[in-house]
Amino acid sequence: MKGQTSCVLGGFVGSSLVGTIMAGYDGHRGWLYYLAVDPEHRGHGFGSDLMVAGEHWLAGLGAPKVQLLIRSDNAGIVKLYESMGYEQSTTIVLGKALGTDA
Description:
The protein is α+β, with helices and mostly antiparallel strands. The chain contains 2 helices and 4 strands. It has helices at 46-60, 78-83; strands at 6-13, 16-25, 30-37, 66-68. The chain has a 4-stranded mixed beta sheet with strand order 1-2-3-4, covered by helices on one side. The two termini are 20 Å apart.
């Protein structure tokens, strides 16, 4: 769950896991991936809390900047990220599957 330059952070209510976010640092910028909050716990700030925790973890590694990727079918989440200071960039992302499990 945690390496030198990557980790998965979890948010809990008591002993129940209600959210996760993946964070990674490539030596140039920090990345946040796959923010997920249990549907029953959405709208209570868990997503924002996990984002801030990921930002702090990356800042602790010296990341000068944080970027995140959003799937095009999840555009509704953009407002949350914008409210936290994130801006849309003009970057084009290309991908290539490296096997049948990709």
